[in-house]
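[09:14] KT: can someone run the structure on this one? pasting the chain below
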Amino acid sequence: MRGEKFTNSEGEIKVSFGYQCNSDQGIPCSAANGCGIQSGSEMPRTGSFSCLSGAALSANATLANTNICNGLIGAEILPSLDSPNSFRKVPSSPCLSRLDILSSSLQSGMSNLSCSPPSPVCSPETDSYLWKPMSAPSRSDSFLNVMEVQVAGGAAGEDRVQAVCSEENEWLFCAIYDGFNGRDAADFLAGTLYETIIFYFNLLDWESKQDVPRASNGLDPDGPSEYFHDNDMVGNEANRKKYASAESFVKKSADPKMEVSSDSFRHGVLDSLQRALSHAENDFLYMVEHEMEDRPDLVSIGSCVLVMLLHGKDLYTLNLGDSRAVLATYDEGNDMAQSESLKAIQLTDSHTVDNEVERTRLLHEHPDDSMSIVAGKVKGKLKVTRAFGVGYLKKKKLNDALMGILRVRNLISPPYISTEPSLNVHKISKSDHFVIVGSDGLFDFFSNEEAVKLVDSYISGNPSGDPAKFLVEQLLIKAARSAGFSEEELMNVPAGRRRKYHDDVTVIVVVLGTNHRTSKASTCV
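[09:31] RB: done, structure tokens below
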């Protein structure tokens, strides 16, 4: 199923991009069908992924924001990141970064964010990620900061997707921001979170050298070891000082026996991801408080968050909400050629009231509120129990900004929506085949196992095809049949009305490994 019929209709696939790594012999691949797939410089590939593809389809009708951060996000920052139909090479650390653009504009009085109070996740010398801490590290210290990166991303309905790759330094950053009640929160994340993560990776390196105490709500060095598959997690303050320098990720060690990605550093990476997310949340809600008089709708706007960072053999995930990262892996000892041995492992937690663990947690945290869950939703409003933004379920004064039936009655003990993410790191093995990263719109129609089987069968028969776009096309076929339409009829239903039949759908497929079963894979847009 190639799906050309879908691409020119009212509901066209808004985002479709691909990236092919170098061959094992160090010869760059050519773009499939002339669609502009980028490959890295001529060097042997030693990382953990062969290629990736991304696709997104809108169902919700939404306008691009114009007011958020005084228009800077939509007018200046996102255009520099968006490349919805192919990867493009951009400087990793331009002289005027996205955060610098915001910071300079805020200082000049263009936005109310300029007086943002200190974030609780910042170090004592840091006011906000918009302001650099005293003696802060240079941008070149972080392993995410290299001379050039490949970037792709865009929007479909209220979803936002991003992919940033440095094949030379063996890392890949992917993120899906599944917005709801509007696109502003997803746009804010797309415009700031990647840079904020870079900031905290810089800070991780700086803290390890300066012996700066870690913030109280960052990951405790004695934190839960279930984040890791290894059981030898370092767990005391003395060992925290042994965090490997982020610079070592870029500069290869002269000692081949040195364990660069130590457990302590993995813990530091997860800590940095969580601190960056908390910081972004703090700044977004501060902005909402100052903008809500003119735009009261901002208090109800939020986003699920799914971040995947693949570095070397380590695959990190951070999630809030119901987007998923699903790993396709072969049962150990079975023949990799047998597709029936492929199994699906969900790497992320589902933060919804349908999850008994989340439901129990929510009821336990609000013992005096008998109506914390109403009609299968948090306060009768949301199915997700953790999300970015959605301030009216977190702060009473933000709820008070809403009028009439939009306001939540009896907001007894906020916050009802948590911003504490689930974190995980998985060490890639030879048995791991690919990862599917998707918004919940994909899993409304396919189980984890069904999605894995579809991608596996497609890759096997179409080594030069686009598995992400194929998944979206298969979803459309299933949605159309469920609605009693043909695919063409469904795609001609205008965005907004089509939300009745399917949600916004965003998918990234990352093919892992460097052996023969994936080395010929490529993507087409």
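[09:33] KT: thanks! The CA atoms of residues 47 and 175 lie 19 Å apart.
[09:34] RB: yep, looked fine to me
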